[in-house]
Amino acid sequence: MKIMLDAGHGYCTPEKRSPDGMREYEFNRSAASLAKELLENYQNVTVYLAHSDERDVPLTERTDLANRLNVDCYVSIHANAYGTGAWNSAGGIETYIHPSRPQEALKLAQKIQRNLIHLTGLRDRGIKTADFHVLRETKMTAVLVECGFMTNKEEAALLRTPVYRKRCAQAIAKAIAEQYGLKRKSDGPKQYKVQVTFEERQEAEKLEGNLRNDGYKAVIIE
Ligand SMILES: [Zn+2]
């Protein structure tokens, strides 16, 4: 299946930053690349990115690309903001679908929201609807997730940390895997190891030599 991840905005998008200067894009892109890595551990998955580190890719360009590639699912990743740039107490996580309430998108949004709340412990603001461009103009299942508030001091601190970004990525990847019944790539054929202990180094070296002659990989650990 084809999945498109969309880190909202770009590095230089004005205003999209926390009162202490973290750019929203820093969080968005980091969560998106971590989610891409995680999703690539599943079979038959191709992950595309809608954004670019070079510029704020216009929304039309993002949704045109998704439609042209005919991806199965589109997830737009954001951090929220409330008010006019000062710290305030608005907080929590919410996931958006289009007001026409497409059933597949609703199911995916519920899974993402549930996993995010479970993994981050933040306040559950629920599933919401909005006529956002990326939800309206995409022809496939599309959701937009707001992973906490940049204008909330505690949440802004979380949004900066690698561990919080990873948790958000895990929640998103897990939800997509659940929704589409994705199977993990196998870890390759099984391997068996034997460990032998000697009192004398010489004896260990002798066995190591014999094993190497027979074509096995052997290592001596003191
Ligand atoms: Zn945003």
Automatic annotation (TrEMBL):
Source taxon at top rank: Bacteria
Keywords carried by this UniProt record: Hydrolase
Annotated InterPro entries: MurNAc-LAA_cat, N-acetylmuramoyl_amidase_3
Any GO MF annotation of the entry: N-acetylmuramoyl-L-alanine amidase activity
Annotated Gene Ontology cellular component terms: outer membrane-bounded periplasmic space
GO biological process: peptidoglycan catabolic process
Cross-referenced Gene3D superfamilies: Zn-dependent exopeptidases
Annotated ranges, domain MurNAc-LAA: 63-177
Full protein name: N-acetylmuramoyl-L-alanine amidase
Taxonomic lineage: Bacteria, Bacillati, Bacillota, Bacilli, Bacillales
